Amino acid sequence: MPRPRTHDEALRVRLLDRAGVLLSTKGAGALSLRRLAADVGTSTTAVYSLFGGKPALVRELFVEAFHRFGSHLRAVPRTDDPGEDLIQLGLAYRRSALADPHLYPVMFTNTVPGFEPDEQVGQEALAALTPLIEAVRAGIAAGVFPDVPATMVVMSCWGLAHGMVSLELNGYVPEELDPDAAYERVLRANLAGWRVPA
Questions:
Q1: Is residue 20 part of a domain?
Q2: Which of 40, 47, 111, 122 is 20 to 30 Å apart from 30, CA to CA?
Q3: What CATH number did the domain enclosing 161 receive?
Q4: Which of 38, 42, 32 has the alpha carbon at shortest distance from 12?
């Protein structure tokens, strides 16, 4: 009977999740392979076996973060209402951030100074945002949104969602506000501002 693999996908995911927690809560200085291995209950040999070293681990963390983020957005079905699609994508954006709060700052803040994304990381990042870009382009083509560069609408929606999610993740939502209702209302107010009057 063959020996079971100890350096499997489950261990890889646990290591990446723990690396994300260390980076997002303690900073880049806290991420050492020895500490990471100890925190997860494995050996540094396992970390090297799976990733080859710290630079490769960090790169893989970025790929994983954008892959999970993109999976949430790609799960939103496209409809014949680009405006509502935009709302649902915004809600999926928040769900992704709340599901993996330790990965959110990895994607959108400078948690690893000096890290330069390579082509695959860039492709994962672009793929993650493609559903948003496509929904905006569909809205412009249908006359739902004004005939402006799609990037203008994309950045507006992304910036608003990012700001609201960042405030929530950092505990800055006032107690009297229901985060679910407030977030969706802000998304719909933004959408109303972009809609071309009927």
A1: no
A2: 122
A3: 1.10.357.10
A4: 42
CA atoms within 13 A on the CB side of 46: 22
pLDDT of residue 145: 98
For the segment 20-42, what is each residue's pLDDT rounded down to a tens digit?
999 999 999 999 999 999 999 99
44 lies in some domain? no
pTM summary value? 0.92
Instruction: Give residue 126's domain range.
Output: 60-194
Do the domain assignments include residue 29? no
Query: Does residue 162 fall inside a structural domain?
Result: yes
Q: Which of 11, 158, 159, 128 is nearest to 63 (CA)?
A: 128
At residue 4, the pLDDT reads 43
Domain tally, the chain: 1
